[in-house]
């Protein structure tokens, strides 16, 4: 059911992406704070939609499909914009790239494993990675608008920590799925 509360919350994360991206093109601190607030609200809906779906037994096929996609689209779009608008140092392009590439790798792995009917639950370490990432990104969105703290340093350190955890969890997922990949070769024509 697309109209359940969890699915609507998931869809709201996709709807907020063009708004956050559009705010990069607006000058001023208010736009940075607005982008931060929208991102934080979207991050909270990620937690809240899962909680509501599980607690009210509203888990749906649509939600299971769209929820991880919404998360990855939001994070990838914002990381791309942070890099494009020089809101992170050149050296921090690397953790942004690592995060996006790992998300693509894990998505492909999950898709393959679903075809062979193998589940791949989210690990606790991956949840920590997501939490750190969801704190680092809004800090970077605010950037220089927060004159009371070194936001770029804090955000970039968080991004690097998230990227390290991203590599660890990506390797764990790949290692766990590798046996299934090898055991299910594609038949040659």
UniProtKB/TrEMBL annotation:
GO terms for biological process: glycerophospholipid biosynthetic process. The chain crosses the membrane at residues 7-26, 32-53, 65-85. The keyword Transmembrane applies. The keyword Disulfide bond does not apply. It is a multi-pass membrane protein. Pathway: Phospholipid metabolism; phosphatidylglycerol biosynthesis; phosphatidylglycerol from CDP-diacylglycerol: step 1/2; Lipid metabolism. PROSITE patterns: CDP_ALCOHOL_P_TRANSF. Gene3D superfamilies: 1.20.120.1760. It catalyses: a CDP-1,2-diacyl-sn-glycerol + sn-glycerol 3-phosphate = a 1,2-diacyl-sn-glycero-3-phospho-(1'-sn-glycero-3'-phosphate) + CMP + H(+). Keywords: Lipid biosynthesis, Lipid metabolism, Membrane, Phospholipid biosynthesis, Phospholipid metabolism, Transferase, Transmembrane, Transmembrane helix. InterPro entries: CDP-alcohol_PTase-I, CDP-OH_P_trans, CDP-OH_PTrfase_TM_dom, CDP_ALCOHOL_P_TRANSF_CS, Phosphatidylglycerol_P_synth. It holds the Pfam family CDP-OH_P_transf. Its main location: membrane. It is found in: Membrane. GO terms for molecular function: CDP-diacylglycerol-glycerol-3-phosphate 3-phosphatidyltransferase activity. Its EC number is 2.7.8.5. GO terms for cellular component: membrane. It comes from the Bacteria. Belongs to the CDP-alcohol phosphatidyltransferase class-I family. This is CDP-diacylglycerol--glycerol-3-phosphate 3-phosphatidyltransferase.
